[in-house]
Amino acid sequence: MRQRVKIVIKEEIVRELYAIAGEDAVQTAEPMKNHTTFRVGGPADYFVAPHTEEEIRKIVALCEEKEIPWFVTGNGSNLVVSDEGYHGVILSVYKNFQGIEVEGNRIRAKAGSMLVSISRAVREAGLSGMEFASGIPGTLGGGVRMNAGAYGGEMKDIVQNVTVLTREGEIRELEKKSSASATVPASSKTEATSYLEQNLCLFREIKKKFLPACRN
Under a CB-based contact definition with an 8 Å cutoff, are residues 106 and 213 in contact? Predict the structure, then answer.
């Protein structure tokens, strides 16, 4: 039988995470099976659910400084975690980092927002173009990173720009490329550590006709 790696929790790191995100947002030796749709996965050394962009930035900076491995998760859809768990910091944006704003024909949403919730907000605002995502059980951040799609629609069809955090702690706004085959600049997947917010460009339904909602 393969021997499980012993978890080592450093109180110094726990205190610093408490100071950044609050005690309620930090758990230690947290079973990842509680945070994946497959309900599998051993314990994560540190599991943190930040509330703001600034908290995410500080947590990433702490991990980089202390050379602690870290990984960003959303709803845990289609995510398989080893029974040995994760020996580092799990940064979960699903629990506390959510928010959806409707501004005319645009939707501004945080990475932890569920695609189902955004689709509902789109419908209630009288907009169209996101019907394909109404049954996808994931978050916006994950959906954008993997270009989630269904029924002939994809995230690349509606994403206008993406706010990301780099490993250097810089928050950047990435515009959609003109190419129809790309959601965001190709370099973003290697430069970005975390997707923070996304702007979606949708359509408004007027007398059974769909007119472009976003124009240059």
Answer: yes
* CA 137 vs CA 63, 125, 199: distances in Å: 29, 21, 20
pLDDT score at 170: 86
Strand pairing partners for 70? Answer: 89
Counting Cα atoms < 13 Å in the Cβ hemisphere of 21 gives 29
Name the pairing type of β-strands 70-73 and 86-92.
parallel
- Note the helical H segments in 67-135: 115-124
Are the beta carbons of 204 and 171 closer than 8 angstroms? no
47: its two tokens: 């599991």
State the average pLDDT over residues 75-95: 93
pLDDT digits (tens, 9 = 90+) for 97-134: 999 999 888 899 999 999 999 999 999 999 988 999 99
